[in-house]
Design brief:
Length: 37
């Protein structure tokens, strides 16, 4: 797959980010805000 993950939480976030990028919209309240890298 396209993701290399260590934990379920990272996988969930990666999928959420991926889907948000593909769809171009983030459902309100669906994702926690990014705090930076």
């Amino acid at each position: 797959g396209p993701f290399v993950m260590n934990t379920r939480e990272q996988l969930i976030q990666a999928i959420a980010d991926y889907q948000a990028g593909r769809l171009g919209v983030i459902p309100e309240g669906a994702l926690m805000p990014h705090t930076g890298n």
